[in-house]
Specification:
This protein is of the alpha/beta class. It is 42% helix and 13% strand. A hairpin with a 4-residue loop joins strand 6 and strand 7. Bound molecules: zinc ion.
Length: 343
């Protein structure tokens, strides 16, 4: 059987231009991602990772190839200047004033990035920074060594990027409690799990908007390092059973980091049976605050334990899906999955 990835690989060997924009290829040995028709890269199949969008490749920790320019072939000078600035300092957290310091109007940068890549410049820089940090979690310190041996100066910000997103390693902050972080691969994409030895603190899709802020909140009280703990192993096994349709309720111990009101809403979410949905208004009535629909929706959005605390089971009163931090495609899939509509 020829899989899609084999088809993509063949398209790369053939430099088949019909696949332009259909996929991007990340090369594990170099940390670079390319267009299908890149003139220089002919990696082995096992070293290729395929992505549907450039943003996904960035989030997986790849940087754009300097030969085939996977982000665009004819970039306006402004965009090229900003891309170079990000690569010079991939761990940097960008703000509008940093853009202005390069004599570029932030709203121009925003518009141009949005038009070309579908994300703003600040989001691009964030995706690059998060991608590096998540890659380090996935591969441990071997990534840094690989980058150095591939000819990078100073590990190309891998360690710095990790520290900027996840905080300092425990050696630099020995008295802090330590949380372990790992990437769990699921049918719907990579998920970031962060846990102590006793409880899971965070489970989110790795490309979720706002993930970095959630991580920052955890960092206030703990150092986060790549690794595994009992709750991470347990949730990985439970997620596998959930996606196989064999598990409806999770038993991994969780830590609820929220206000009393938020915790009340999250508890009400857990009371919605698998396979059913509720409206935001129904949920508000459930927690005894029928007029606080907006606050309930906000507490719903502040959930940091995706799937486990089933915020995806809350939809608009008119039957429309409403919002979802992990994206509406995933929300729809999860609801249908729980209703047994995929089997
Ligand atoms: Zn290339």
């Amino acid at each position: 059987m020829i899989t899609t990835h084999h088809e993509y690989y063949q398209a790369m060997l053939d430099k088949n231009s019909e696949y332009e924009g259909i996929f991007y290829v990340g090369v594990k040995t170099t940390g670079v991602f390319c267009r299908p028709g890149c003139p220089v890269r002919k990696p082995k199949f096992e070293n290729c990772e395929f992505f549907e969008t450039a943003a996904q490749a960035l989030l997986a920790g790849y940087r754009p190839c300097k030969r085939c320019h996977p982000l665009s072939s004819h970039l306006p000078e402004t965009i090229q200047q900003l891309l170079n600035a990000v690569e010079a300092q991939p761990d940097k957290k960008w703000h509008s004033e940093d853009v202005r310091a390069l004599h570029i109007d932030p709203s121009t940068a925003r518009r141009q990035f949005k038009k070309r890549f579908g994300i703003t410049f600040i989001e691009y820089a964030r995706a690059r920074r998060m991608g590096l940090a998540l890659k380090e979690i996935q591969n441990g310190s071997s990534v840094i060594e690989a980058q150095v041996s591939a000819g990078y100066e100073s590990g190309s910000g891998f360690r710095d990027a990790f520290a900027s997103v996840m905080g300092t390693a425990p050696s630099a902050a020995e008295h802090q409690p330590v949380l372990e972080s790992a990437i769990i691969e699921t049918k719907l994409g990579s998920m970031l799990a962060i846990a102590s030895d006793d409880a899971l603190h965070l489970l989110e899709f790795a490309d979720r908007r706002g993930l970095e802020r959630a991580v920052e909140r955890l960092r206030k009280n703990a150092a986060i390092v790549p690794g595994r703990s009992g709750p991470i192993d347990q949730i990985e096994a439970e997620l596998q059973a959930y996606f196989a349709g064999k598990l409806a309720a999770f038993t991994t111990p969780v830590a609820l980091n929220g206000t009393d009101f938020q915790q009340k809403v999250w508890q009400a979410l857990c009371d919605i049976p698998c396979g059913e949905t509720r409206s935001y208004a129904e949920l508000a009535a459930e927690v005894g605050k029928p007029s606080a629909v907006r606050a309930v929706a906000q507490a719903n959005g502040a959930n940091q334990l995706a799937i486990i605390i089933p915020c995806h089971r809350v939809i608009n009163a008119d039957g429309k899906l409403g919002g979802y931090g992990g994206g509406l495609v995933r929300k729809k899939w999860l609801i249908e999955h729980e209703q047994g509509r995929h089997s």
